[in-house]
Design brief:
The chain is of the alpha/beta class and 289 residues long. Helix content is 39%, strand content 20%. GO terms for molecular function: ATP binding; ATP-dependent peptidase activity; serine-type endopeptidase activity.
Length: 289
């Protein structure tokens, strides 16, 4: 038996599905007329981003139906005499406080803080990676509920930094005088996978050299001990997350060029996508001079 993997819908696809099918279906099922309710695009987009988190559209359909039922109740109880305009501002009245949030790019360049790109079963997201150093004896700490594969990526990134210490103007004996701590925020969420290797290495180099990381740059890619950046999965979802989060430049592995053709032009056209083969290229792009 062959397993066929299907990627989830993008935000634009969900918006179009809702406009063409889900809204009309919900209105029909709940007995409400177009003269009584009007869903704006901004409301549908915010429902997708803040009130549902899924690969498909079942939750989106249920949420739209919930709004329709509440408007019907207002009409029946004669609490509403005019058409209900459902936009981004009025959503909280019908759905309450936002249930989810998505990652946003940092406003300022900072030392030791890198934006990675993560893939989940419900889409992509930005992954903040922080690194700091303090006096110690070379201990490497990592926190943020990291899985075994991600911990191995940190070890590999550290080995790359140590072998390139002279080229990067890092003291040869830094591992004997400093402890390093890597943290991935949102500690309640388990994180794993090898695709943050390049970001981990960039965070380490930044904190050890004092060079700031550009806030509008995000990256994805596994790293080898030779410093090669190897391909990853979920490229379309990751690039959508980058665009949504305000990222301007995305660094991806050179071997992911084939997957790049699957990314909608609407997303690629708004991002500066740079393909790299080695970690040296990543550092030149992501770090201030």
């Amino acid at each position: 038996m062959e397993i066929i993997e299907l990627s989830g819908y993008t935000e634009d696809e969900k918006v179009q599905i809702a406009k063409r099918h889900l809204v009309a279906k919900a209105m029909s099922n709940n007995g409400i007329k177009s003269s009584e309710i009007d869903f704006k695009d901004s409301a549908i987009l915010d429902i997708i981003r803040y009130y549902t988190r899924e690969a498909g559209v079942r939750g989106l359909s249920r949420t739209i139906s919930t709004i329709c039922r509440k408007v019907v109740k207002e009409v029946v109880l004669k609490k509403r005499k005019s058409r209900a305009i459902i936009n981004a501002k009025s959503l909280s009245k019908y759905l309450g406080v936002k249930k989810f949030r998505y990652g946003l790019a940092e406003e300022h360049n900072q030392v030791g803080e890198v934006t990675g790109l993560a893939w989940t079963s419900v889409g992509g997201d930005l992954l903040t990676i922080e690194a700091t150093t303090y006096k110690g004896k070379g201990k490497l700490n990592y926190t943020g509920q990291l899985g075994d594969v991600m911990k191995e990526s940190i070890q590999a990134a550290m080995s790359v930094v140590r072998t390139r210490a002279k080229e990067l103007d890092i003291a040869d004996d830094f591992q004997e005088k400093l402890d390093i701590h890597i943290h991935v925020p949102d500690g309640s969420t388990p994180k794993d996978g090898p695709s943050a290797g390049a970001a981990m290495c960039t965070a380490l180099v930044s904190v050890l050299t004092g060079r700031k990381v550009k806030a509008d740059v995000a990256m994805t890619g596994e790293i080898t001990l030779r410093g090669e950046i190897t391909p990853i999965g979920g490229l379309k979802e990751k690039m959508l997350a980058a665009l949504r989060g305000g990222i301007k430049t995305v660094i991806i592995p050179d071997d992911n060029e084939r997957e790049l053709s699957e990314v909608p032009d609407k997303i690629k056209g708004k991002l500066n996508v740079i393909k790299v083969k080695w970690i040296d290229e990543v550092l030149d792009i992501a770090l201030e001079k």
